[in-house]
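Usage

Read records sequentially. Each one opens with the input sequence:
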Amino acid sequence: MKILWCLLFFSFNSLGITESDLISRYQSDIFPYYQEYPINFFPYHDDKAKKFPFKLFTKNSKNLLVILPGKGEQIERYAETIFDLRPVDADILLLQFRGQGKASRALSDHEKAHIENFDDVVEDMHALFVKLNIRERYKKINLLAHSMGGHHGLRFQAKYGDFDEIILNSPLVGLFNERETLLNYYMVKVLDLIGLSNFYVPGGGSWRDRKFENNQLSHSSSRFSKIRDIERRSPNYRSGSVT
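and closes with the structure output:
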């Protein structure tokens, strides 16, 4: 399995869809494959009235790959990733943590990315794993996570240890400057104490459309455009800055 992962990621450019072919392949192959599998919703562990979405792509495998998106990412953004991973001998569980995308929101302003306690995300995942009998159903469980998804995945692993192998892309584990991290920590505590915990962070704000030029997210104009199209079409599911 490890050799397969190495081959997959070191040869990603040769396996992936080219820039010029993406738009046509997305309509003809990528999104239809993604749509073959239904989207499901599972209740928050502490509030059954609120739910988060997940998709299980089954291949009758004894291996499972769990994919955790980053902050504010709608799970549809991973349609191409799911398509590229078809050759991998693993079922794929793609889920979106609370307060993001199609998941229920904590605040009336849906664009505010707000979570009361990150441990709640861990317990949401654990409850879903129990419901789906993940540990009993699969021999190996691996994690592929991006940014904030990496943060939640590491928290989950520290408490439950269900993942056999972990692949993280830009995981949110802290800031580079320890002094700056400490100052931010105390600043947030003060803002919380004076009742501003539901406000955007200083300098943050609601969702904004952006142009490809000078963006810091992608070198692929077609993929960048596809992501923006998803967010433009789904105003109720997009996110602004964190609180």
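Summary fields computed downstream for this record:
- Strands lie at 40-44, 47-57, 63-68, 91-95, 140-146, 165-169.
- The first helix runs from residue 2 to 10.
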